[in-house]
Amino acid sequence: WRQLPLVLYQIQNKYRDERRPRFGMLRAREFVMKDAYSFHRDQQDLEECYRSLHGAYARIFRRCGLECRPVLADSGAIGGSQTHEFMALAEAGEAEIASCTACAWAADVEEAAPALRQPPELTDLEPVATPGAETVAEVATLLGVSADAVAKILFFVVGGGNEARLVAALIPGDRELNLLKLAAAVGGGPLRPALPEEVPVPLGSAGPVGLEGVPLDTDREVAQGGSWVVGANRGGFHLRGATPGRDFAPGQVVALTTVRRGDRCPECGGELAFGRGIEVGQIFGLGTKYSASLGATFLDEDGQERPMIMGCYGIGVTRTMAAIVEQHHDEDGIIWPVAVAPYRCVLVPVVSGAGAGPALTRAEELAGRLEAAGISTALDDRDERPGVKFKDADLLGYPVRITLGRALEQGQVEVRRRDTREVQLVALADVVGAVQSLLAGLP
Length: 443
Fold this sequence. Notes:
The chain is α+β, with helices and mostly antiparallel strands and 443 residues long.
């Protein structure tokens, strides 16, 4: 909670003037991470641990009051065969996620692969003149077909210096190439678009049929079959009816495109919804990437030396706090869920004049009773106006506010919920029980 003053400062500035542009996600001054690693004898053991941690993380974030989705993600530089990010849904999130409205499937947009569409109808291969048509839109218009019946080929240079090599990616004409997926498919390394002079065929009429000397990566939607309109590798001409496996070898078949609105779920075919999220945790099945290179081995029951199979699991503690604030706030400040509130209750004595001393004494006594009952309690004993204290209590987001004011003369205090702003008068003798009952019903 050392970061709380910064969070409060940002919240206060965020709502002080609504005409100011929204800043992005709240960020703490430091990054605190909860890390865990696991070591296994085989893949089955890793998968059991992975599922267990997946469930544990989901429960942790749920108890923190977060609406969170585990999504398929890119393992990035850490590597491994499988990974899930835990995304707290928030408009200020840095990542866009796609999720199915009919099943539990969800993925980072950069990682998600769209469901396969019906391929174009099979036809014979024939060359067609396309003078002046070089873009997908121009070719589709000239030939009277839709853009999703055209397959476009893109050339890239991987690596640099003497190790630089030319590669090609073949994808549907109406989709965008995902560079992260292509980089992973070609083995990583620097990736840049090829210059015209580096490509052995004219770019505006390039295609996979007859292409030689260039490794080809074909998106799975093109590779599934059907006949496509492609470049003929000579200026002013395209081929109608190019079929993978019959007219050209698809090479490596991988998912190369980015999911978009209108696509269907790859698991069940349901409708996809899109939103933004804040990454608060991630789990990885690392396999032997690190143990093999470091020589971290064990002897199995047959005395054979084998590399340990590893898993890696992390929660961003400070990012989780920021995500909670993003999901739980209103125009006046934070609304902490009870499980993570720094204090569950705040006592605010507001009696002035001769009654100020006795009111503070009552507040101190009540604070002791609440603490003895296990209710963490803050006491605002500052010499400030009531309005200032009330504003600050809302800003800091205590789940319950107890005000010792005029009703104190009748032996009563005001108990107020932060989330609904509901107020009830409670006798001093009954405050602990009333607050316990109130907290039990709060999220």
